[in-house]
Prior knowledge:
single chain, binds magnesium ion
Amino acid sequence: DLPCEKYEYQAEVSRLMDLIVHSLYSNKEVFLRELVSNASDALDKLRFLSVTEPDLIKDAVDLDIRIQTDKDNGVITITDSGIGMTRQELVDCLGTIAQSGTAKFLKALKDSKDAGVDSNLIGQFGVGFYSAFLVSEKVVVSTKSPKSDKQYVWEGKANASSYTIREETDPEKLLKRGTRLTLYLKRDDKGFAHPERIQNLVKNYSQFVQFPIYTWQEKGFTKEVEIDEDPAEGEKKGENTDVEKKKKTKKVVERYWDWELANETQPIWLRNPKDVTTEDYNEFYKKTFNEYLDPLASSHFTTEGEVEFRSILFVPATKKDDIVNLKTKNIRLYVKRVFISDDFDGELFPRYLSFVKGVVDSNDLPLNVSREILQESRIVRIMRNRLVRKAFDMILGISLSDNKDNYDRFWENFGKNLKLGCIEDHANHKRIAPLLRFVSSQSEEELISLDEYVENMKPEQKDIYYIAADSLTSARNAPFLERLLQKDYEVLFLVDPMDEVAVTNLKSYKDKNFVDISKEDLDLGDKNEGKEEVKQEFSQTCDWIKKRLGDKVASVQISNRLSTSPCVLVSGKFGWSANMERLMKAQTL
Ligand code: ADP
Ligand code: MG
Protein backbone atom coordinates (compact mmCIF):
# COMPACT_ATOMS: atom_id res chain seq x y z
CA ASP A 1 0.00 0.00 0.00
CA LEU A 2 0.93 3.64 -0.29
CA PRO A 3 3.54 4.72 2.25
CA CYS A 4 3.62 8.03 4.10
CA GLU A 5 3.49 10.60 1.36
CA LYS A 6 4.38 14.25 1.42
CA TYR A 7 2.13 16.79 -0.33
CA GLU A 8 2.60 20.50 -0.97
CA TYR A 9 -0.30 22.79 -0.06
CA GLN A 10 -1.95 24.65 -2.87
CA ALA A 11 -0.10 27.97 -3.05
CA GLU A 12 -2.92 30.05 -1.52
CA VAL A 13 -3.25 27.79 1.50
CA SER A 14 0.01 28.78 3.13
CA ARG A 15 -0.81 32.42 2.62
CA LEU A 16 -4.27 31.87 4.02
CA MET A 17 -2.98 30.13 7.12
CA ASP A 18 -0.70 33.06 7.71
CA LEU A 19 -3.57 35.49 7.36
CA ILE A 20 -5.80 33.52 9.68
CA VAL A 21 -3.18 33.27 12.36
CA HIS A 22 -2.46 37.00 12.18
CA SER A 23 -5.92 38.46 11.87
CA LEU A 24 -7.52 36.23 14.48
CA TYR A 25 -4.73 36.41 16.96
CA SER A 26 -6.94 37.96 19.65
CA ASN A 27 -9.82 35.67 18.82
CA LYS A 28 -8.09 32.34 18.85
CA GLU A 29 -10.83 30.39 20.52
CA VAL A 30 -12.88 30.39 17.31
CA PHE A 31 -10.88 27.30 16.39
CA LEU A 32 -13.20 25.21 18.52
CA ARG A 33 -16.32 26.58 16.88
CA GLU A 34 -14.87 25.80 13.46
CA LEU A 35 -13.78 22.28 14.25
CA VAL A 36 -17.01 21.42 16.02
CA SER A 37 -18.99 22.80 13.12
CA ASN A 38 -17.00 20.62 10.72
CA ALA A 39 -17.72 17.62 12.91
CA SER A 40 -21.39 18.53 12.94
CA ASP A 41 -21.39 18.96 9.13
CA ALA A 42 -19.79 15.53 8.80
CA LEU A 43 -22.51 13.99 10.97
CA ASP A 44 -25.17 15.82 8.97
CA LYS A 45 -23.74 14.44 5.74
CA LEU A 46 -23.72 10.92 7.11
CA ARG A 47 -27.26 11.14 8.41
CA PHE A 48 -28.39 12.57 5.10
CA LEU A 49 -26.74 9.84 3.04
CA SER A 50 -27.97 7.10 5.33
CA VAL A 51 -31.51 7.95 4.32
CA THR A 52 -30.90 6.35 0.96
CA GLU A 53 -28.06 4.05 2.02
CA PRO A 54 -28.99 2.66 5.43
CA ASP A 55 -25.89 0.44 5.33
CA LEU A 56 -23.78 3.49 6.09
CA ILE A 57 -24.84 3.49 9.72
CA LYS A 58 -25.09 -0.25 10.17
CA ASP A 59 -22.19 -0.05 12.62
CA ALA A 60 -24.56 1.31 15.22
CA VAL A 61 -22.12 3.96 16.35
CA ASP A 62 -23.93 6.91 17.88
CA LEU A 63 -23.90 10.17 15.99
CA ASP A 64 -22.00 12.37 18.36
CA ILE A 65 -18.93 14.51 18.98
CA ARG A 66 -16.49 13.80 21.78
CA ILE A 67 -13.79 16.16 22.99
CA GLN A 68 -11.05 14.95 25.23
CA THR A 69 -8.29 17.03 26.79
CA ASP A 70 -4.91 16.18 28.18
CA LYS A 71 -3.89 19.24 30.12
CA ASP A 72 -0.51 17.92 31.15
CA ASN A 73 0.61 17.51 27.57
CA GLY A 74 -1.48 20.26 26.02
CA VAL A 75 -3.41 18.00 23.67
CA ILE A 76 -7.04 18.18 22.55
CA THR A 77 -8.78 15.46 20.54
CA ILE A 78 -12.08 16.00 18.79
CA THR A 79 -13.76 12.84 17.53
CA ASP A 80 -16.88 12.63 15.43
CA SER A 81 -18.66 9.59 14.05
CA GLY A 82 -19.55 11.37 10.83
CA ILE A 83 -18.86 10.81 7.17
CA GLY A 84 -15.05 10.84 7.40
CA MET A 85 -12.76 11.38 4.43
CA THR A 86 -11.09 9.14 1.88
CA ARG A 87 -7.45 9.62 1.04
CA GLN A 88 -8.39 11.71 -1.99
CA GLU A 89 -10.85 13.78 0.05
CA LEU A 90 -8.11 14.55 2.55
CA VAL A 91 -6.03 16.00 -0.27
CA ASP A 92 -8.97 17.88 -1.78
CA CYS A 93 -10.44 19.21 1.45
CA LEU A 94 -7.44 19.90 3.63
CA GLY A 95 -4.84 20.79 1.01
CA THR A 96 -6.76 23.27 -1.14
CA ILE A 97 -9.02 26.22 -0.42
CA ALA A 98 -11.87 25.50 -2.75
CA GLN A 99 -13.93 25.05 0.40
CA SER A 100 -16.64 27.48 1.34
CA GLY A 101 -15.67 28.59 4.84
CA THR A 102 -12.21 29.61 3.90
CA ALA A 103 -13.30 31.22 0.66
CA LYS A 104 -15.75 33.37 2.64
CA PHE A 105 -12.99 34.32 5.00
CA LEU A 106 -10.76 35.49 2.17
CA LYS A 107 -13.57 37.60 0.79
CA ALA A 108 -14.25 39.11 4.20
CA LEU A 109 -10.60 39.97 4.57
CA LYS A 110 -10.58 41.63 1.20
CA ASP A 111 -13.78 43.57 1.96
CA SER A 112 -12.48 44.60 5.33
CA LYS A 113 -9.46 46.15 3.69
CA ASP A 114 -11.72 48.12 1.39
CA ALA A 115 -14.25 49.10 4.01
CA GLY A 116 -12.13 49.21 7.13
CA VAL A 117 -14.11 46.57 9.01
CA ASP A 118 -12.30 45.79 12.20
CA SER A 119 -10.65 42.45 12.50
CA ASN A 120 -12.93 41.31 15.31
CA LEU A 121 -15.72 41.04 12.82
CA ILE A 122 -13.70 38.63 10.82
CA GLY A 123 -13.89 36.26 13.74
CA GLN A 124 -17.55 35.93 12.92
CA PHE A 125 -16.91 34.41 9.54
CA GLY A 126 -16.30 30.76 9.02
CA VAL A 127 -12.58 30.41 8.74
CA GLY A 128 -12.64 26.66 8.59
CA PHE A 129 -10.25 23.88 9.28
CA TYR A 130 -7.05 25.94 9.18
CA SER A 131 -8.13 27.83 12.30
CA ALA A 132 -6.78 24.74 14.11
CA PHE A 133 -3.36 26.30 13.54
CA LEU A 134 -4.33 29.33 15.58
CA VAL A 135 -3.55 27.29 18.66
CA SER A 136 -1.75 24.18 17.41
CA GLU A 137 1.79 23.55 16.35
CA LYS A 138 0.79 20.18 14.95
CA VAL A 139 -2.57 18.85 13.78
CA VAL A 140 -3.25 15.17 13.11
CA VAL A 141 -6.45 14.12 11.36
CA SER A 142 -7.21 10.41 11.43
CA THR A 143 -10.25 9.58 9.39
CA LYS A 144 -12.28 6.67 8.08
CA SER A 145 -14.81 7.07 5.31
CA PRO A 146 -17.48 4.44 4.76
CA LYS A 147 -16.39 4.55 1.12
CA SER A 148 -12.97 3.19 1.96
CA ASP A 149 -11.74 0.14 3.93
CA LYS A 150 -8.75 2.02 5.16
CA GLN A 151 -8.27 4.76 7.71
CA TYR A 152 -5.88 7.58 6.80
CA VAL A 153 -3.87 10.03 8.79
CA TRP A 154 -3.24 13.58 7.65
CA GLU A 155 -0.55 15.44 9.51
CA GLY A 156 0.39 19.10 9.21
CA LYS A 157 2.52 21.56 11.17
CA ALA A 158 2.09 25.29 11.70
CA ASN A 159 4.08 27.45 9.26
CA ALA A 160 4.83 24.50 7.00
CA SER A 161 4.32 24.39 3.27
CA SER A 162 3.58 20.70 3.14
CA TYR A 163 1.68 17.96 4.94
CA THR A 164 1.76 14.17 4.93
CA ILE A 165 -0.79 11.41 4.53
CA ARG A 166 -0.29 7.82 5.63
CA GLU A 167 -2.42 4.85 6.52
CA GLU A 168 -3.43 4.37 10.14
CA THR A 169 -1.72 1.23 11.41
CA ASP A 170 -2.08 1.47 15.17
CA PRO A 171 -5.00 -0.88 15.95
CA GLU A 172 -5.82 1.16 19.05
CA LYS A 173 -6.52 4.18 16.93
CA LEU A 174 -8.88 2.57 14.44
CA LEU A 175 -12.29 4.18 14.15
CA LYS A 176 -15.41 2.43 12.98
CA ARG A 177 -16.24 5.56 11.10
CA GLY A 178 -15.62 9.29 11.29
CA THR A 179 -12.77 11.58 12.11
CA ARG A 180 -10.48 12.22 15.02
CA LEU A 181 -8.55 15.47 15.15
CA THR A 182 -5.63 15.69 17.52
CA LEU A 183 -4.35 19.17 18.27
CA TYR A 184 -0.90 19.52 19.78
CA LEU A 185 -1.19 22.96 21.29
CA LYS A 186 1.43 25.67 21.05
CA ARG A 187 3.25 26.37 24.27
CA ASP A 188 1.27 29.53 25.06
CA ASP A 189 -2.04 27.94 24.20
CA LYS A 190 -1.90 24.84 26.33
CA GLY A 191 -4.50 26.42 28.62
CA PHE A 192 -7.13 25.39 26.10
CA ALA A 193 -6.55 21.79 27.13
CA HIS A 194 -8.20 22.36 30.51
CA PRO A 195 -11.40 20.33 30.69
CA GLU A 196 -13.45 23.16 32.20
CA ARG A 197 -12.19 25.66 29.66
CA ILE A 198 -13.22 23.39 26.79
CA GLN A 199 -16.57 22.71 28.42
CA ASN A 200 -17.21 26.46 28.67
CA LEU A 201 -16.15 27.12 25.10
CA VAL A 202 -18.42 24.37 23.82
CA LYS A 203 -21.30 25.76 25.83
CA ASN A 204 -20.63 29.17 24.45
CA TYR A 205 -20.01 28.33 20.83
CA SER A 206 -21.89 25.17 20.13
CA GLN A 207 -25.08 25.25 22.08
CA PHE A 208 -27.12 24.95 18.91
CA VAL A 209 -25.28 22.03 17.37
CA GLN A 210 -27.80 19.28 16.68
CA PHE A 211 -25.65 16.40 17.81
CA PRO A 212 -24.61 15.65 21.37
CA ILE A 213 -21.19 17.01 22.25
CA TYR A 214 -19.51 15.28 25.16
CA THR A 215 -16.43 16.49 26.95
CA TRP A 216 -14.25 14.31 29.12
CA GLN A 217 -14.60 15.62 32.66
CA GLU A 218 -13.24 14.74 36.00
CA LYS A 219 -16.02 14.04 38.45
CA GLY A 220 -16.23 13.24 42.07
CA PHE A 221 -18.69 11.94 44.56
CA THR A 222 -18.36 11.61 48.31
CA LYS A 223 -18.84 8.29 49.91
CA GLU A 224 -18.54 7.01 53.43
CA VAL A 225 -15.81 4.47 53.99
CA GLU A 226 -15.33 2.40 57.13
CA ILE A 227 -12.12 2.85 58.98
CA ASP A 228 -10.74 0.45 61.57
CA GLU A 229 -9.99 1.80 64.99
CA ASP A 230 -6.36 1.82 65.83
CA PRO A 231 -5.82 -1.56 67.53
CA ALA A 232 -2.91 -0.20 69.55
CA GLU A 233 -5.29 2.05 71.38
CA GLY A 234 -7.53 -0.81 72.35
CA GLU A 235 -4.61 -2.68 73.84
CA LYS A 236 -3.63 0.29 75.92
CA LYS A 237 -7.01 0.33 77.47
CA GLY A 238 -6.64 -3.35 78.17
CA GLU A 239 -9.69 -4.34 76.15
CA ASN A 240 -10.06 -7.59 74.40
CA THR A 241 -9.21 -6.98 70.76
CA ASP A 242 -11.25 -9.95 69.65
CA VAL A 243 -14.58 -8.45 70.58
CA GLU A 244 -16.59 -6.80 67.94
CA LYS A 245 -14.75 -3.76 66.72
CA LYS A 246 -16.56 -0.50 66.83
CA LYS A 247 -17.11 0.62 63.26
CA LYS A 248 -16.09 4.14 62.40
CA THR A 249 -16.67 5.85 59.09
CA LYS A 250 -15.26 8.86 57.33
CA LYS A 251 -16.21 10.76 54.19
CA VAL A 252 -13.90 10.56 51.22
CA VAL A 253 -14.18 12.00 47.71
CA GLU A 254 -13.89 9.41 45.03
CA ARG A 255 -12.59 10.83 41.73
CA TYR A 256 -13.23 9.45 38.26
CA TRP A 257 -13.47 10.62 34.67
CA ASP A 258 -16.52 10.40 32.45
CA TRP A 259 -18.19 11.93 29.42
CA GLU A 260 -20.43 14.86 30.14
CA LEU A 261 -23.00 16.29 27.77
CA ALA A 262 -22.13 19.92 27.06
CA ASN A 263 -24.93 21.10 24.82
CA GLU A 264 -28.65 21.06 24.46
CA THR A 265 -29.59 18.99 21.43
CA GLN A 266 -33.26 19.75 21.16
CA PRO A 267 -33.36 22.14 18.22
CA ILE A 268 -34.60 25.53 19.29
CA TRP A 269 -37.42 25.50 16.73
CA LEU A 270 -38.91 22.39 18.31
CA ARG A 271 -39.22 24.10 21.65
CA ASN A 272 -42.32 25.89 22.72
CA PRO A 273 -41.92 29.57 21.78
CA LYS A 274 -43.07 30.41 25.29
CA ASP A 275 -39.93 28.81 26.67
CA VAL A 276 -37.52 30.59 24.36
CA THR A 277 -36.24 34.06 25.16
CA THR A 278 -35.31 36.78 22.70
CA GLU A 279 -31.70 36.26 23.74
CA ASP A 280 -31.98 32.58 22.81
CA TYR A 281 -33.26 33.48 19.36
CA ASN A 282 -30.58 36.10 18.87
CA GLU A 283 -27.85 33.71 19.93
CA PHE A 284 -29.19 30.99 17.70
CA TYR A 285 -29.29 33.41 14.80
CA LYS A 286 -25.77 34.68 15.32
CA LYS A 287 -24.31 31.23 15.73
CA THR A 288 -26.19 29.67 12.85
CA PHE A 289 -25.63 32.40 10.31
CA ASN A 290 -22.28 33.72 11.46
CA GLU A 291 -23.74 37.13 12.16
CA TYR A 292 -22.34 39.62 14.62
CA LEU A 293 -25.41 41.83 15.08
CA ASP A 294 -28.73 40.80 16.57
CA PRO A 295 -31.51 40.44 14.01
CA LEU A 296 -34.06 43.25 13.65
CA ALA A 297 -36.90 40.80 14.14
CA SER A 298 -37.60 37.13 14.47
CA SER A 299 -40.65 34.96 14.11
CA HIS A 300 -41.07 31.46 15.46
CA PHE A 301 -44.12 29.56 14.30
CA THR A 302 -45.67 26.19 13.64
CA THR A 303 -48.26 25.48 11.05
CA GLU A 304 -50.62 22.59 11.30
CA GLY A 305 -53.37 21.19 9.19
CA GLU A 306 -52.82 20.67 5.52
CA VAL A 307 -49.08 21.07 5.71
CA GLU A 308 -47.05 20.78 8.86
CA PHE A 309 -43.82 22.60 9.39
CA ARG A 310 -41.94 24.62 11.94
CA SER A 311 -39.84 27.61 11.26
CA ILE A 312 -37.92 30.48 12.75
CA LEU A 313 -37.35 33.44 10.46
CA PHE A 314 -35.12 36.46 10.97
CA VAL A 315 -34.68 39.87 9.43
CA PRO A 316 -30.97 40.69 9.49
CA ALA A 317 -29.71 44.04 10.69
CA THR A 318 -27.13 44.23 7.95
CA LYS A 319 -27.05 43.74 4.25
CA LYS A 320 -24.46 41.34 2.95
CA ASP A 321 -24.53 41.52 -0.81
CA ASP A 322 -26.50 42.93 -3.68
CA ILE A 323 -30.18 43.44 -3.42
CA VAL A 324 -30.81 39.94 -4.64
CA ASN A 325 -28.21 37.31 -4.29
CA LEU A 326 -29.15 34.00 -5.78
CA LYS A 327 -26.73 32.01 -3.67
CA THR A 328 -27.58 33.35 -0.27
CA LYS A 329 -27.80 30.12 1.76
CA ASN A 330 -30.12 32.00 4.07
CA ILE A 331 -32.73 29.32 4.62
CA ARG A 332 -31.72 26.02 6.15
CA LEU A 333 -34.18 23.31 5.20
CA TYR A 334 -34.69 20.33 7.51
CA VAL A 335 -36.94 17.37 6.98
CA LYS A 336 -37.92 15.69 10.26
CA ARG A 337 -34.94 17.36 11.94
CA VAL A 338 -32.47 16.09 9.34
CA PHE A 339 -30.59 18.93 7.73
CA ILE A 340 -31.22 18.71 4.00
CA SER A 341 -29.77 21.78 2.38
CA ASP A 342 -29.24 25.51 2.55
CA ASP A 343 -29.39 25.71 -1.20
CA PHE A 344 -33.14 25.89 -1.68
CA ASP A 345 -33.85 29.50 -0.68
CA GLY A 346 -35.14 30.24 -4.14
CA GLU A 347 -37.82 27.58 -3.83
CA LEU A 348 -39.05 28.79 -0.44
CA PHE A 349 -38.91 32.55 -0.89
CA PRO A 350 -39.28 34.88 -3.84
CA ARG A 351 -35.93 36.36 -4.72
CA TYR A 352 -36.77 39.88 -3.54
CA LEU A 353 -37.16 38.41 -0.03
CA SER A 354 -33.88 36.52 -0.27
CA PHE A 355 -32.49 38.55 2.61
CA VAL A 356 -34.75 36.75 5.11
CA LYS A 357 -32.84 34.13 7.06
CA GLY A 358 -34.08 31.16 8.98
CA VAL A 359 -34.71 27.48 9.43
CA VAL A 360 -37.61 25.51 8.07
CA ASP A 361 -38.32 21.99 9.31
CA SER A 362 -41.00 19.99 7.52
CA ASN A 363 -42.54 16.65 8.33
CA ASP A 364 -44.29 16.36 5.01
CA LEU A 365 -41.42 16.41 2.56
CA PRO A 366 -39.49 13.30 1.61
CA LEU A 367 -36.00 13.07 3.08
CA ASN A 368 -34.45 12.72 -0.34
CA VAL A 369 -36.06 15.96 -1.45
CA SER A 370 -34.42 17.71 -4.39
CA ARG A 371 -34.84 21.05 -6.07
CA GLU A 372 -36.98 19.39 -8.73
CA ILE A 373 -39.29 17.90 -6.14
CA LEU A 374 -39.55 21.24 -4.37
CA GLN A 375 -40.41 23.05 -7.56
CA GLU A 376 -43.30 20.74 -8.32
CA SER A 377 -44.57 20.22 -4.82
CA ARG A 378 -47.95 21.50 -3.80
CA ILE A 379 -46.78 21.30 -0.20
CA VAL A 380 -43.95 23.68 -0.97
CA ARG A 381 -46.33 26.13 -2.58
CA ILE A 382 -48.35 26.23 0.62
CA MET A 383 -45.19 26.52 2.72
CA ARG A 384 -43.97 29.32 0.53
CA ASN A 385 -47.17 31.30 1.01
CA ARG A 386 -46.99 30.86 4.74
CA LEU A 387 -43.36 31.83 4.91
CA VAL A 388 -43.87 34.92 2.82
CA ARG A 389 -46.80 35.98 4.94
CA LYS A 390 -44.78 35.51 8.12
CA ALA A 391 -41.90 37.46 6.63
CA PHE A 392 -44.24 40.37 5.92
CA ASP A 393 -45.72 40.19 9.42
CA MET A 394 -42.21 40.43 10.78
CA ILE A 395 -41.33 43.45 8.66
CA LEU A 396 -44.61 45.13 9.52
CA GLY A 397 -43.78 44.48 13.16
CA ILE A 398 -40.52 46.37 12.77
CA SER A 399 -42.31 49.28 11.12
CA LEU A 400 -44.88 49.49 13.91
CA SER A 401 -42.41 49.22 16.76
CA ASP A 402 -41.56 52.20 18.93
CA ASN A 403 -37.94 51.95 17.95
CA LYS A 404 -38.00 54.03 14.80
CA ASP A 405 -34.31 53.51 14.12
CA ASN A 406 -34.95 49.84 13.44
CA TYR A 407 -37.25 50.48 10.54
CA ASP A 408 -34.96 53.18 9.17
CA ARG A 409 -32.22 50.64 9.24
CA PHE A 410 -34.40 48.02 7.61
CA TRP A 411 -35.44 50.43 4.91
CA GLU A 412 -31.92 51.49 4.21
CA ASN A 413 -30.81 47.88 3.80
CA PHE A 414 -33.79 46.29 2.16
CA GLY A 415 -36.04 49.05 0.85
CA LYS A 416 -34.87 48.29 -2.65
CA ASN A 417 -35.93 44.68 -2.21
CA LEU A 418 -39.49 45.74 -1.39
CA LYS A 419 -39.55 47.99 -4.44
CA LEU A 420 -38.46 45.02 -6.49
CA GLY A 421 -41.33 43.14 -4.86
CA CYS A 422 -43.74 45.72 -6.30
CA ILE A 423 -42.52 44.71 -9.73
CA GLU A 424 -42.23 40.98 -9.26
CA ASP A 425 -44.97 40.03 -6.85
CA HIS A 426 -48.30 41.58 -7.73
CA ALA A 427 -50.13 39.12 -5.51
CA ASN A 428 -48.50 40.70 -2.46
CA HIS A 429 -48.96 44.37 -3.34
CA LYS A 430 -51.31 44.78 -0.38
CA ARG A 431 -48.57 43.60 1.97
CA ILE A 432 -45.72 45.51 0.38
CA ALA A 433 -47.33 48.92 -0.15
CA PRO A 434 -47.77 49.88 3.52
CA LEU A 435 -44.07 49.15 4.04
CA LEU A 436 -42.80 51.56 1.39
CA ARG A 437 -41.25 54.87 2.36
CA PHE A 438 -40.75 58.09 0.40
CA VAL A 439 -39.67 61.66 0.75
CA SER A 440 -42.13 64.30 -0.33
CA SER A 441 -42.64 67.98 -0.93
CA GLN A 442 -43.66 68.30 2.71
CA SER A 443 -41.14 65.93 4.17
CA GLU A 444 -37.80 66.11 2.48
CA GLU A 445 -35.80 64.80 5.41
CA GLU A 446 -38.03 62.27 7.08
CA LEU A 447 -39.39 59.35 5.12
CA ILE A 448 -43.14 59.00 5.05
CA SER A 449 -45.38 56.00 4.47
CA LEU A 450 -48.27 55.91 2.04
CA ASP A 451 -50.63 55.81 5.01
CA GLU A 452 -49.19 59.07 6.24
CA TYR A 453 -49.58 60.53 2.77
CA VAL A 454 -53.22 59.49 2.56
CA GLU A 455 -53.96 60.89 5.99
CA ASN A 456 -52.48 64.18 4.91
CA MET A 457 -54.57 64.42 1.73
CA LYS A 458 -56.89 67.39 1.26
CA PRO A 459 -60.61 66.59 1.41
CA GLU A 460 -61.11 67.24 -2.29
CA GLN A 461 -57.86 65.52 -3.35
CA LYS A 462 -58.47 62.27 -5.21
CA ASP A 463 -55.08 61.01 -6.26
CA ILE A 464 -51.61 60.41 -4.88
CA TYR A 465 -49.26 62.75 -6.71
CA TYR A 466 -45.65 62.09 -7.46
CA ILE A 467 -42.78 63.41 -9.46
CA ALA A 468 -39.78 61.32 -10.41
CA ALA A 469 -36.45 63.08 -10.62
CA ASP A 470 -32.78 62.33 -10.39
CA SER A 471 -32.29 64.41 -7.26
CA LEU A 472 -34.17 66.18 -4.52
CA THR A 473 -33.13 69.53 -5.95
CA SER A 474 -34.56 68.86 -9.36
CA ALA A 475 -37.74 67.45 -7.85
CA ARG A 476 -38.12 70.49 -5.62
CA ASN A 477 -37.57 72.92 -8.52
CA ALA A 478 -39.76 71.21 -11.09
CA PRO A 479 -42.29 73.65 -12.56
CA PHE A 480 -44.91 70.88 -12.48
CA LEU A 481 -45.12 71.38 -8.76
CA GLU A 482 -46.33 74.95 -8.80
CA ARG A 483 -50.07 74.42 -8.95
CA LEU A 484 -50.03 71.54 -6.52
CA LEU A 485 -48.06 73.43 -3.93
CA GLN A 486 -50.44 76.32 -4.35
CA LYS A 487 -53.25 73.97 -3.46
CA ASP A 488 -51.16 72.63 -0.59
CA TYR A 489 -51.17 69.11 -2.03
CA GLU A 490 -48.32 66.90 -0.96
CA VAL A 491 -46.23 65.42 -3.79
CA LEU A 492 -44.04 62.34 -3.41
CA PHE A 493 -40.49 62.91 -4.61
CA LEU A 494 -39.38 59.71 -6.27
CA VAL A 495 -35.65 60.19 -6.29
CA ASP A 496 -34.49 56.60 -6.11
CA PRO A 497 -34.26 55.06 -9.58
CA MET A 498 -36.52 52.20 -8.50
CA ASP A 499 -39.23 54.34 -6.90
CA GLU A 500 -41.04 55.17 -10.08
CA VAL A 501 -41.07 51.62 -11.41
CA ALA A 502 -42.41 50.44 -8.06
CA VAL A 503 -45.18 53.02 -7.95
CA THR A 504 -46.27 52.47 -11.55
CA ASN A 505 -46.55 48.77 -10.79
CA LEU A 506 -48.66 49.41 -7.72
CA LYS A 507 -50.95 51.71 -9.72
CA SER A 508 -53.00 52.62 -6.65
CA TYR A 509 -53.04 52.56 -2.88
CA LYS A 510 -56.25 52.43 -0.87
CA ASP A 511 -58.27 53.14 -4.03
CA LYS A 512 -56.23 56.24 -4.79
CA ASN A 513 -54.32 56.26 -8.05
CA PHE A 514 -50.70 57.22 -8.30
CA VAL A 515 -50.50 60.17 -10.68
CA ASP A 516 -47.36 61.45 -12.30
CA ILE A 517 -47.57 65.23 -12.25
CA SER A 518 -45.20 65.53 -15.19
CA LYS A 519 -47.56 63.83 -17.62
CA GLU A 520 -49.97 65.58 -19.95
CA ASP A 521 -53.62 66.02 -19.00
CA LEU A 522 -52.98 66.20 -15.28
CA ASP A 523 -56.42 66.78 -13.82
CA LEU A 524 -56.41 68.69 -10.58
CA GLY A 525 -60.17 68.96 -10.58
CA ASP A 526 -60.02 72.66 -11.48
CA LYS A 527 -62.88 74.22 -13.29
CA ASN A 528 -61.97 75.03 -16.85
CA GLU A 529 -63.59 78.45 -16.92
CA GLY A 530 -62.24 80.56 -19.69
CA LYS A 531 -59.82 77.90 -20.83
CA GLU A 532 -61.47 77.57 -24.22
CA GLU A 533 -61.09 81.29 -24.91
CA VAL A 534 -57.44 81.24 -23.95
CA LYS A 535 -56.98 78.20 -26.18
CA GLN A 536 -58.51 80.08 -29.08
CA GLU A 537 -56.46 83.16 -28.42
CA PHE A 538 -53.15 81.29 -28.41
CA SER A 539 -53.83 78.62 -31.01
CA GLN A 540 -51.70 80.40 -33.61
CA THR A 541 -48.86 80.82 -31.14
CA CYS A 542 -49.02 77.10 -30.37
CA ASP A 543 -48.96 76.19 -34.04
CA TRP A 544 -45.98 78.44 -34.56
CA ILE A 545 -44.01 76.91 -31.67
CA LYS A 546 -44.84 73.39 -32.86
CA LYS A 547 -43.57 74.26 -36.31
CA ARG A 548 -40.34 75.63 -34.93
CA LEU A 549 -39.72 72.60 -32.70
CA GLY A 550 -40.87 70.06 -35.29
CA ASP A 551 -40.37 66.43 -34.24
CA LYS A 552 -38.77 67.35 -30.97
CA VAL A 553 -42.19 67.56 -29.34
CA ALA A 554 -45.42 65.67 -29.93
CA SER A 555 -47.68 68.66 -29.47
CA VAL A 556 -47.88 72.14 -28.01
CA GLN A 557 -50.86 72.85 -25.78
CA ILE A 558 -52.41 75.43 -23.53
CA SER A 559 -52.63 74.23 -19.91
CA ASN A 560 -53.58 75.55 -16.52
CA ARG A 561 -51.09 73.53 -14.53
CA LEU A 562 -48.56 76.35 -14.11
CA SER A 563 -48.82 79.45 -11.99
CA THR A 564 -45.53 81.34 -12.44
CA SER A 565 -43.50 79.52 -15.11
CA PRO A 566 -44.45 80.36 -18.72
CA CYS A 567 -44.16 76.84 -20.10
CA VAL A 568 -43.22 73.29 -19.19
CA LEU A 569 -42.21 70.15 -21.03
CA VAL A 570 -44.51 67.25 -20.10
CA SER A 571 -44.46 63.60 -21.04
CA GLY A 572 -47.16 61.97 -23.12
CA LYS A 573 -49.88 60.10 -21.27
CA PHE A 574 -48.68 56.73 -22.45
CA GLY A 575 -45.03 57.49 -22.96
CA TRP A 576 -42.15 57.08 -20.60
CA SER A 577 -41.62 59.80 -18.08
CA ALA A 578 -38.46 61.83 -18.46
CA ASN A 579 -37.03 59.97 -15.49
CA MET A 580 -37.79 56.55 -16.98
CA GLU A 581 -36.23 57.61 -20.21
CA ARG A 582 -33.11 58.59 -18.34
CA LEU A 583 -33.06 55.19 -16.64
CA MET A 584 -33.57 53.26 -19.83
CA LYS A 585 -30.78 55.20 -21.46
CA ALA A 586 -28.48 54.49 -18.55
CA GLN A 587 -29.24 50.79 -18.89
CA THR A 588 -28.65 50.52 -22.61
CA LEU A 589 -25.43 52.50 -22.55
P1 ADP B 1 -16.05 24.31 5.16
O1 ADP B 1 -16.46 23.63 6.43
O2 ADP B 1 -16.63 25.68 5.07
O3 ADP B 1 -16.30 23.50 3.94
P2 ADP B 1 -13.47 23.91 6.26
O4 ADP B 1 -12.13 24.50 5.99
O5 ADP B 1 -13.97 24.05 7.64
O6 ADP B 1 -14.46 24.54 5.23
O7 ADP B 1 -13.43 22.38 5.93
C1 ADP B 1 -12.98 21.96 4.67
C2 ADP B 1 -13.55 20.63 4.29
O8 ADP B 1 -12.87 19.57 4.97
C3 ADP B 1 -15.00 20.40 4.63
O9 ADP B 1 -15.85 20.92 3.63
C4 ADP B 1 -15.09 18.88 4.68
O10 ADP B 1 -15.24 18.35 3.38
C5 ADP B 1 -13.73 18.49 5.19
N1 ADP B 1 -13.78 18.24 6.63
C6 ADP B 1 -13.33 19.04 7.62
N2 ADP B 1 -13.53 18.48 8.83
C7 ADP B 1 -14.14 17.30 8.62
C8 ADP B 1 -14.64 16.23 9.47
N3 ADP B 1 -14.57 16.31 10.79
N4 ADP B 1 -15.20 15.15 8.87
C9 ADP B 1 -15.29 15.07 7.53
N5 ADP B 1 -14.86 16.04 6.69
C10 ADP B 1 -14.28 17.13 7.21
MG1 MG C 1 -16.06 24.36 8.30
